[in-house]
Amino acid sequence: MATDTRTLDNLNVCNHMTDEELMHIALERSFDDRRTTSNFDRRSISTSSSSNPSTPQPPVNPPRQVQNSANPPTSLSMLLLKRYKRKLRPVESLIVHEDTDSLLDLVRQRSNSLLEPNDEGWIGLHEAAHYGHLPSLSILINAYPDMVNKRTLKNETALLLVARKGHVSCADFLLKNGADPNIPNVDRETPLFIACENSHRAVVDLLLKYGAQVNRCNTQGISPLHEACRHGGMELCEMLLKAGANLETKNIYGITPFFTAAQHGRVDILRLLAKKGADINGQAADGATPLFEACKNGHVSAVEVLLALNADVNRSLMSGLLPLHVAVQNNHQQIVTTLIPLTSRVRIRNSGTSPLHIAADKDRDDILELLIQSEFDVNAKLSEGNTRMYEDRRSTALYFSVFNGNLEAAEMLLEAGANPNLDVFNPLLIAIRRAWIDMAAMLIKYGANVNAQITTQPSLFPSAILLNKSLPMLKLLLDNGCDAQRCFECPYGQYPHPAVAPLRRPIEEMQGNSDSAPLRPVQFCEAFCTQSLCRVIGPMVSMLLDYVGHVQLCSRLREVLERCSDWEEIKLKTAPPRPLMQLCRLRIRHLLGAQRLKLLHTMPLPARLIRFLCHDVTCLLT
Questions:
Q1: pLDDT tens for residues 239-297?
Q2: Could you tell me the CA-to-CA distances from 249 to 49, 245, 409, 452, 474 in Å, in that order?
């Protein structure tokens, strides 16, 4: 049977409930089930009697309960009861049901069960504190006054348990009867810390009056004031400060209460602590400032307050990142807009990372446009250290956008003047390898080098052809000046060739390792005569021959091509002499150069001639 959605939601909620809450829900559901059944039985009896009082009616069975969102399965009650971790002992059962008479009987009998701990070290006193039942607590303290500071296995006292639940009357009774407000649990959390953690203001006030140490920290170095700031307890903060709370207490990460308030966007607390003298620009162990944290978490109001308090927007992490960087990373556009005019461009350059890099990497197109409009350098490079963090040694924002396949972002950068030829591994080669023809066309339009080489995998012909496996992409490259002639320059010619060395994997082609020995340049016949590429070599060679003059195929290339269906056409194209029109076309294209070939369509030439020069008109082979 499929489980209902609401049932699953109920189960998820149960995972975050306390033991007491689970037990109460289970009991309520159990009572509701019984009440529903008995009401139904009464209605059935009443109906049958009124219809014919003298005739005995057969027992009416209640309709089968349909498990749906309106009628959740009663098995949930069983699950809740199972989730109730501590099995109810006799003493605990008396406290839960507020049976003070029976509890008094046990006290009079001096029953060992009152002081016998369970598996967690809880005695009856802890149970009474946990449930906040003052009469039971009073009975047990009066009977065993020396147990008031008795601790569980987790070092929890009855006072700490009532502080967690916010039972004010119980806390007052315990303190009046000698409870120590400064006994911590195993995590060194005192009752005051626990009360602040759970925002129980009345309990905090009570504990402070009875001498609770306001600056006691837990094992993480977190103070009660940290907790009050985290939960936004303005009144709690005022009470703690009045009691002498230290503003500059740092936890093990170097975080102060003011820093915590900024992390969680507690605007009123920020103003209060600043007025009391908190360090506005205090840095954590990693160099983060309160402003950095507010920017990271998108707390716009907190950022505005911190800036009004003269927070330093140019104080960076130890890694060099500034508040502007983290606002871009987390897509907080309003904060980015606020920080741009306040952030030093010199500090950005010194950081080794431009906000443009982050915006391009995370595909934050709106923020990228905003940064470009604010005249950030679109050709800024990552620092050498940051570049080495990437296997492909990327360095420009354009590379990030191309790598992500973000055509719109790449176009914004190119229109703003981004140079597509600054990276070690040309972004055009990324587009070619992934067969993104629109991206490749745009990069070529803005001047990408179609003859770029892979430094870690040198070849005797353009690397763009080495990475390409698509005929439309090959034509795009050749139309825009890719050097096809070099594909047919083989040093072995008609002589036997040595064995082919295995090519590197795609990811290895993009990795730069200056320590490795330089590789021997790859030849076209080596790269494309492998078994996996034999099926595409015929059409590719046929297209390449349209962009070259007189060439001679080497012995290895001929051997492979003779088995291809395109061999007859290829043989005809390579037979001398080449058509004069083909040679003229090649000469004109050579004189124009790769960059001016992109402008052919703008020249005052006949349309047919332009089509001819763009290889849209074929030459007769004979």
A1: 999 999 999 999 999 999 999 999 999 999 999 999 999 999 999 999 999 999 999 99
A2: 76, 9, 45, 57, 65
What is d(CA 134, CA 569) in angstroms, rounded to the nearest whole number?
Answer: 100
- 302 within some domain: no
Return the pLDDT at 20: 54
How many degrees, rounded to 5, is the angle at CA 422 between CA 417 and CA 424?
155
Q: Which long-range contacts (CB under 8 A, 24 or more apart) does 242-247 make?
A: 243/208, 243/214, 244/214, 244/215, 245/214, 245/215, 246/215, 247/273, 247/276, 247/277, 247/278, 247/279
According to DSSP, the residues that pair with 522 across neighbouring strands are: 459
pLDDT at 2 over 60: no
pLDDT tens digits for 468-521? 888 999 999 998 889 888 888 888 888 787 776 655 554 445 454 444 444 678
Give the pLDDT confidence of 535-572 residue by residue, as tens digits: 678 888 888 988 888 888 888 888 888 888 788 888 88
Give the global pTM.
0.77
Report the greatest alpha carbon distance in the chain.
122
Number of H helices, E strands in the chain: 36, 0
Q: Kindly report the backbone phi and psi dihedral angles of residue 68, in degrees, each rounded to the nearest multiple of 5, phi listed first.
A: -150, -175
Domain count, the chain: 1
| Cis ω before 184 (30° cut-off from 0) | no
**Is the Cβ–Cβ distance between 330 and 300 less than 8 Å?**
no
525: in domain: yes
Tokens read off for 203: 């309990």
pLDDT tens, residue by residue, 284-294: 999 999 999 99
Q: Both tokens of residue 37?
A: 């059944």
Single-letter amino acid code for the residue at 245: A
Torsion of CA 80, 85, 87, 88, to 10 degrees: -70
| 205 neighbors 193 (Cβ within 8 angstroms) | no
CA distance 537 to 541: 6
Among residues 422, 328, 330, 307, the alpha carbon closest in space to that of 374 is found at: 328
**Rg of the Cα trace of the chain?**
39
| 615: Cβ contacts below 8 Å, ≥ 6 apart | 475, 478, 479, 546, 547, 585
Q: 57 or 409, which is more confident?
A: 409
Hey, what are 539's tokens? 């059409």
The answer as to whether 548 is a domain residue is yes
The DSSP secondary-structure symbol of 4 reads: P
The residue count of the chain comes to 622
Question: Which residues, 6+ apart, have CB-to-CB distance to 187 below 8 Å?
Answer: 218, 219
Query: Is 287 in contact with 318 (CB distance < 8 Å)?
Result: yes
| Cβ-proximal residues to 561 (8 Å cutoff; 6+ apart), any chain | 537, 538, 541, 553, 567, 570
- Domain range spanning residue 457? 450-576
Task: Say if 29 falls within a structural domain.
Answer: no
pLDDT band, very low/low/confident/very high, at 128 (cuts 50, 70, 90): very high
What CA–CA distance (Å, rounded) separates 311 from 241? Answer: 23
Phi-psi region of 279 (alpha: psi -120 to 50; beta: other; left: phi over 0): beta
Task: Report d(CA 229, CA 240) in Å as an integer.
Answer: 11
Is the distance from CB of 364 to CB of 328 less than 8 angstroms? yes
Locate 555 and state its tokens.
């012995």
